[in-house]
From TrEMBL:
Transmembrane segments: none
Family designation: Belongs to the SMP-30/CGR1 family.
Protein name: SMP-30/Gluconolactonase/LRE-like region domain-containing protein
UniProt xrefs under PANTHER family: REGUCALCIN (PTHR10907)
Gene designation per UniProt: g7004
SMP-30/Gluconolactonase/LRE-like region domain mapped to chain residues: 17-262
Pfam family for this entry, one: SGL
Length: 296
C-alpha cells in the first residue's frame, strides 16, 4: 500500500465543479471544465493561476476530447448539456454534432465521457442540477457515425469511462451506487458484453472520475472523502492520495504527474471549504495511458 499526501493546491481557482481534466500533448497543457459555472479552462502544466485561459459558454460543458486529424489548439470535442459539440477555441463558439435528448427537456445533461479505441464517443447522461434529487433516469450512450446507441439504461450518475492497456476491458463508474463496472470490449467490432462488478466502494464516498495507468491500475477520485485510490486490475486497493478538500472529482495523467480536480465544498469547514474547487497535482512515478481521439 503506497501513500501520497497533497497539502496545497496547484491552482487556487475556486471552481464550482472542476471536472474532465485532459492532458494536451501538443501544448504540454491541461484542459478542464467547470460544469456549474459553464466554463472551459486550459493551463500549461507548469503554469499558475495567471496563465489559465478561460472560455465562458452559455451551456454547461462536461468533458473534452481531441478530434482525430484536427489541431487541438483550434478545435476540440466537448460534451455539453444536450450532447456532443465541436468547440472553436479561437471564437469560443460551438457547433452541435449529436444530441442524446430533446433540447426542450431541461431535466437531463451529459456527464463524463471518453472516446474508445475505434474513435466512437461514450458519454453518460444524468439529472441536471436544479431538478431535485438525482433519479435513475440517466444512460450510457455511444455516438458513432452520426448515430447514437443507448448501451446502458437506468443509471443515476454514470461517470468516467476507460479501457485496460490491451483494450479488451472497458470500465465505467456508477457513482451513486458506489460501483465501478467492467465489460468485455471487442477490439474488432467495438461491441461490449459481460458486464460485471469490478469494484464496490465500502464507505459513503462516491467513486467519480478515473484514469488507467500503463500497468492497468485504475486511479479513481473519491467524491466526499478527500482522496484518490489506486485499484489494481483485480479490484484491490493498492495506493491512496490524501487531499485537503473533500469533493475530489477526477484525475488525469500528464507524464508521471497526476492532475486532480475538485468541486466546491460549500457545506464544509476550514481547509476543505477553503480549497474546494481547486486543482492539485502530485508525481506518482507512473505514466497513464493516452486517451483516444474522437473520429468525426
Amino acid at each position: 500500500m503506497q501513500h501520497w499526501s497533497v497539502d496545497k493546491p496547484w491552482l487556487d481557482l475556486g471552481c464550482g465543479l472542476a471536472e474532465g481534466p485532459f492532458y494536451e500533448k501538443e501544448t504540454n497543457s491541461v484542459r478542464f471544465v467547470d460544469i456549474k459555472r459553464k466554463r472551459v479552462h486550459s493551463v500549461p502544466l507548469e503554469g499558475t493561476e495567471s496563465s489559465v485561459q478561460t472560455w465562458q459558454l452559455d451551456v454547461c460543458p462536461t468533458v473534452t476530447a481531441d478530434i482525430e486529424g484536427v489541431d487541438p489548439r483550434q478545435r476540440i470535442l466537448i460534451g455539453i448539456k444536450y450532447g456532443l459539440a465541436a468547440f472553436d477555441r479561437n471564437t469560443g463558439s460551438y457547433e452541435m454534432l449529436a444530441r442524446f435528448n430533446d433540447p426542450d427537456d431541461e431535466r437531463l445533461r451529459s456527464n463524463d465521457g471518453a472516446a474508445d479505441p475505434h474513435g466512437h464517443f461514450w458519454v453518460g447522461s444524468m439529472t441536471d442540477f436544479g431538478h431535485g434529487e438525482f433519479q435513475p433516469e440517466g444512460s450510457l450512450y455511444r455516438f458513432r457515425k452520426g448515430s447514437k446507441e443507448e448501451v446502458v439504461q437506468g443509471l443515476t450518475i454514470p461517470n468516467s469511462i476507460g479501457w485496460a492497456p490491451d483494450n479488451k476491458t472497458m470500465y465505467y463508474t456508477h457513482s451513486k451506487t458506489r460501483e465501478i463496472y467492467a465489460l468485455d470490449y471487442n477490439i474488432s467490432s467495438g461491441a461490449v458484453s459481460n458486464q460485471r462488478l469490478f469494484y464496490q466502494h465500502p464507505t459513503s464516498g462516491e467513486p467519480d472520475g478515473f484514469r488507467i495507468d500503463v500497468d492497468g491500475n485504475m486511479w479513481t477520485a473519491i467524491y466526499g472523502e478527500s482522496r484518490v485510490l489506486r485499484i489494481n486490475p483485480e479490484g484491490q486497493i493498492t495506493g491512496e492520495i490524501s487531499l485537503p478538500t473533500r469533493n475530489i472529482s477526477c484525475v488525469q495523467f500528464a507524464g508521471t504527474q497526476l492532475v486532480i480536480t475538485s468541486g466546491a465544498d460549500e457545506a464544509g469547514e476550514g481547509q476543505s471549504k477553503r480549497y474546494g474547487g481547486n486543482l492539485f497535482k502530485v508525481d506518482v512515478g507512473k505514466a497513464g495511458l493516452e486517451l483516444f481521439k474522437f473520429r468525426m
